[in-house]
Fold these 2 entries.
Entry 1:
Amino acid sequence: MTRAGFVALIGEPNAGKSTLTNRMVGAKVSIVTHKVQTTRARIRGVALEGDAQIVFVDTPGLFRPRRRLDRAMVAAAWGGAADADVTVLLVEAHRGITEGVERILEGLEGIGKGRIVALAINKIDKVQSEKLLSLTKDLNDRYDFAETFMISAEKGHGTEHLKQWLAERLPEGPWLYPEDQIADLPMRMIAAEMTREKLTIRLHQELPYQMTVETENWEERKDGSARIDQIIYVMRDGHKGIVLGNKGETIKSVSKAAREEIEEFLGRRVHLFLQVKVRPNWLEEAERYSEMGLNFKDGNK
Ligand SMILES: Nc1nc2c(ncn2[C@@H]2O[C@H](COP(=O)(O)OP(=O)(O)OP(=O)(O)O)[C@@H](O)[C@H]2O)c(=O)[nH]1
């Protein structure tokens, strides 16, 4: 009998949710960078473990929402946890119980009793093992976790054990996705995320936070290659200059790096065309939200 179900990963921004998803799925699906709050969409990866298919909901970081976009992200994160069969809370070993973790623990009480919630203490490669025991105890005193795991998502320590445990907790039933499908995100969105990741890396400190990338057009060509047109939306004229760079240098190198990654992902040639547009109001435009897999209404609070 096969099993299948949803596992929601929750945790503070930067806790390692994307890294863990990628590790479990075994392919790069969600986007990992050193910048916080990179995951805007509810990206899922599908992992196989024996007869089980585990669908990971890689929720956006949970934090105190201020603007509309932030509120929509937090609503999406809690929505993901409430719909899931199993929830895993990721806590960073070296940071321990921060204010953000406290808030998530409070939020957990609200998603309903009888849910399976596991604790994964991540980045154990960064701390001494003695510290882990007291952190485990403190966290379990505050919430009745079904199980505690000590992992390093990056190094792969303890992640196999966690994956097996999760697989056993899922309900019996047919698989939710075809075997060869690793992400239910449309390719257009994955390609846009890849470009956004390259921009994030390249611009680093200069990065306009209010920036988004959308795939506008995707054309399959007869020779097997794909032509992909993407638009980078920024809020101000000044930001446009930053993204373009001196003599277009920045956008050129971003375009090259993104193209290479998309080609590797698709396993074929890609012609990538990037355009930068100024859209002062994109944060308030409903269409932008659905492109990111978020619900615009969730920001209305
Ligand atoms: N040392 C160490 N670093 C890790 C580990 N897991 C993740 N990281 C690093 O922590 C940073 C954040 O990881 P992400 O996976 O992007 O975190 P996230 O929770 O998805 O972040 P958001 O998308 O902002 O919510 C990255 O630089 C990772 O390389 C780990 O086990 N050990």
Entry 2:
Amino acid sequence: MSLFLHYLSMPYLLEGIELTLEVTALGLGGGLILGLILAGMQLSRFWLLAAIARAYTVIFRGTPLILQMVFAYDALPHIGIKLPAVLAAGLALACNEAPFIAEMLRAGVLGVDRGQLTAGQALGMTPSVLMRRVIAPQAIRTMIPAFGNEAVSALKNSSLASVVAVQELTLRSTQLASSTFDFFSIFFASGLLYLVLTATISVIQLFVEWLLDLDRTTRRERKLADYLPWRRVDLATKLELADATVADPDPAELADTPPLALTREERARRATTIARNNIAVEAKDLTKSYGPQKVLDGLDLTVRVGEVVALLGPSGSGKSTLLRCINHLENWDAGTLRVGGRRLGFDENGKRLSPRAIANERASVGVGMVFQQFNLFAHLSAKENVAGPLRWVHGMTRIDADRRATELLDRVGLSHRADALPRHLSGGQQQRVAIARALAPNPSVLLLDEPTSALDPELVNEVLEVIRRLAIDDGLTMIISTHQIRFADEVADRVAFLSGGAIIEEGPAHEVLTNPRNPLTARFLSVMEADKTPEAVR
Ligand SMILES: Nc1ncnc2c1ncn2[C@@H]1O[C@H](COP(=O)(O)OP(=O)(O)OP(=O)(O)O)[C@@H](O)[C@H]1O
């Protein structure tokens, strides 16, 4: 025992730890940088970069680290690169770690929900903003356990540096054992030192996981989480609300008045006004196919400023695709789309715009979009979901963006849930936050893609009420894909019925819905009437 304790505190072995940590740090740090580059290459749109990264991965993952260390130390001098042993071992370890780290990074990035990326694009985020603000914060959280594993394995692999005569812990233990023949005490002491190092890495990993955990709930824990850059909450508001449970307002109370519905005369007046307004959205002969399947087939649609158009039609008729084209989340094959008179997706010379230019165009044209699955940014509070894009895309100051977010959350009846994460909100609340987020930059047109389809029946009304007020009170131009026939009748000025990627019937909402001329429209409406669930016509 005394021998074991003697070796455990022996300066000769302890100095070996320094070199072990040096090689590990070089391997992990270098591996992270190289891994970032490799992951970027693999995720890039350029196949050649992806192929080079893949080839690198095959070579460095498929050959033993010990050979790579020998190569870095003994073969590189032949091409004039002579590295000190520690650096050569660190370089080999970095090159070996890089493909593993790259795969972790790639998995983290690909693991972020695609709906959130689409929502970010729809809000006008450029690819780099999307990466920094949406993908990276979420990917990093999921990668921490795997990165902890990789750090432990790099530390243990650093012992192979002994092959190029780096005097790290394992080499020193071996040397000591061969001169004293006291194998058991020396290797037991050295094993314990390794264990202390790996346990330290595990503790750091657990601490980082704890720090990044957005779900912590106790008061003390919450304090730390609140300072995370992506979970900035309004501490003053939170303290006030901490002990008070505030109930959601009744949907009908969102504006202190009963649900709105227009009378026949009001509808007629509205129709006359709208007919005089400028064109907000114009699709001409729009055609789009997915492989052999034609999804939009020469579709024409004109929507005027202030008009609310409901898109109806059976599942697969192309409603979502049309909305996605209007926001340029999809490319189309032929035809033109103009929003506010501007031809989307092309410069003045008719050349296709880059993804970055399209993002900027989206932000400046002002088309907001609300999705069926809400697509809120999962790592951000409700308030940050609204305020964040205003700062990152529209350059608003933090104070102005926060003020606007508070105002909009108040408008959708959710100011008391401003600090809640999306997963702590009900579906209806999430959709109301999503509506607030889409409204924040003051869009000229709001597209709503089946905004209530993913909601439980009892939550549908609270969302419909918010939309109803936007249409009737605020006069917002809206195109809504919906299966809610009654809602379409109450809110829409016009209904367009799609079938097979084209509009086969359109006209004033009440007229089309009560007296359809096309047999397909009539059949669809009667099926919807017979069974209120949309599945009936799917
Ligand atoms: N990314 C895609 N790749 C291949 N096919 C697609 C893609 N997106 C949509 N489609 C197909 O295009 C057709 C139209 O889809 P779209 O989502 O526009 O219909 P929809 O009218 O909105 O239907 P729903 O009411 O069910 O949402 C469908 O047949 C669908 O399978």
